[in-house]
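Hi everyone,

Forwarding the result from last night's run.
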Amino acid sequence: MHEAGIVVGANGIDINLAGHGMFGGIASGGGGPAGIDNTGGYDDVTIRNGTVGGFGFGIVATDASRNHILGITSGAAGNAVTIEGGDANEIRHGEMFGRSWGIHTTGSIGLIVADTSFAGGFSSGIEVSGDGARIVRDRAVTAGVAASDVSGIRLIGSGGRVAANHVEGPWPAGGISIVGSNDAVVDNTVLNATPLFATGRASDGDGIFVGAFSTGITLRGNRTDDNDGDGIDVRAAGASLESNAAFDNGGWGILAVNGVTDLGGNTAGGNGAGQCQNVFCP
């Protein structure tokens, strides 16, 4: 019977792997416990400087706040990192691969994921459901995704910021997918989002997709090239677009609904269906 590698049992502890790895010996398709288990909900825990691999899940935290995952490489049969609840947790300078999600969070407020790479085998590279998230300077490069409803970065929440990330496909359901309110999507590069098969979803093969029920979304300074669908597809009236670029996409360069705010500086060229709709592109 497999057991968790380390079970956190107190607030404020520092788990320093000191450059070493810990491995669970579970096959890539199997289930099993976590390499580091903080389902007890302990706060101010630091996990750093090493590798966690071969477990059912890499690192799991439930209702824990101010946890820090720093310089960790994690690979797992499930999710590399799972965070449910809690406030002000952060992941920095990591490499995360999960056969399901790379990073999956639910209801975690004020999460920071910075300078980290992530990929999912059958699910998104990162999916964040929670308010106030910061996903910055990260890298989402596909691990050969086999599912259709998969994005490099998926944010479901309000007051978030997705900035300066590099997202490279296929990521069939959009390189970056946003459903929320008052989120900023700024200075990202998204390439080669490709649906493995047509599903009829609006987001199929789009570089950046903003869902119809989103409000107050800002898109500024993003570059979306060589995606099979639209470079940028904004289904939410009230979004603002400024200085985005979309070239050589299979669909539209920038496809936006009536009611978006065009703040200028958007450019497009070489796109299959047309250059820009409801924003001006010279």
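The first strand starts at residue 6 and ends at 7.

Cheers,
N.
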